[in-house]
Amino acid sequence: MSTTRGTNASPPRMPDMAAALAHLAGYNTAAAANSLAELTRASGAVWADAISRSTTPLGMADRGLRWWREMRRRSEPSWHLPSEIVLSTPFAHLRDFTEPADRAAEVVPTLVLPPQAGHSSSVVDFSPTQSQLAVIRAAGLHRLFVLEWRAATPRTAGVTITDYLDVIDRSIERMGGRANLVGDCQGGWLAAIYAALHPERVHTLTLAGAPIDFHAGESVIASSTRTLTSAFGLAPYRALVALGGGNMPGRAVLTNFIAIQPQSEISRQLQLLENIDDRAHVERYRVFEDWFKHTQDIPGAFYLWLVEHLFWRNELISGELVVDGRRADLANITCPLFLLAGSTDHITPPPQLFAAAEAVGTPQDRIHRRTANGGHLGLFMGREALRTDWPPLMAAVHALSVPRPDGAGGDDHERNARDVVADPGGTPEVPAP
To answer: For residue 326, is pLDDT > 80?
Structure first.
């Protein structure tokens, strides 16, 4: 697959565009079929339930009204673990989740960079029983910090990649000058760029669902971006930013996510109707919808930069990405590398992430690859990934971050990290993209 190069790079070659268009056509056809199948299944389930309950028309109307109220009732997502804002900029807060008793702990501090795709950063602390931060802390990485990406405003429309890298650097300096970096999705490629430019400040690098080779695998986002930019350049994206008053509207990003997997949206709403009398299911639905449907805008200058240099020109993996006159060469990264992909991730298919293993300078025996069952969002807040996949990775990071032989106490830390997440217990998860 070709890679466009340089500031004046030409668009992708026609065979690549034909492949992208074919992938989009096939994907959309399958999505439509899956949506119809879910509508048929749910309709049958609702009628079967009504018959089994001998539900009266009045009872069905009551269930329908409660369903409608739950779909419309939204609250702002919140953080669940206690934290303190120790550094603040107009576009980001540095939150310290370290408990007072652990502030002097002899462990390398950890900095988490959450996704930034029009949603709250609190996805890494999704709920009291589904928290990536709780897993990391229970693994023994007690000195824990998170950069919370704030909603863009007209004042921050001009925030650039330089500003983001600078706030990471200021944060690590405040933490002692060296840290374990954990990057989820867009936080992952941001962490990789930072590590390439400042390898001396990164003790270990963990990337989850993070696109590094934006053209690898089959991704509907990659295919649509390459199709649009080939035909129109950045014009469609500039138009969206202009409509957002200089920022990329979070609502537009949400609409795109829903359009990519409409069957998930349909399934989530119809499963709510099926389980409207199940308080546990309604609560799980509410927590997810509060986070998913509460959007925030992205700084326009930053958004247009990432579309051009990463999604379109794929400069991070080609080695041609230049930031403020410095080349962000992934080969500069030599620290231990931990990679976590989702087997059915349609946003960042595994090849986009695992490409990092061949691009970095880290010896292959210090690169850990793991594939979790499930999709994109499940990597960061899904019960299975949090109980099964994150604990061993974070226990391994901890073993490298304390002044004692590697592996000491590893089993205990892995077990502790697993146990802070509620056991699914056979209960169905709320469908998520």
So the answer is: yes
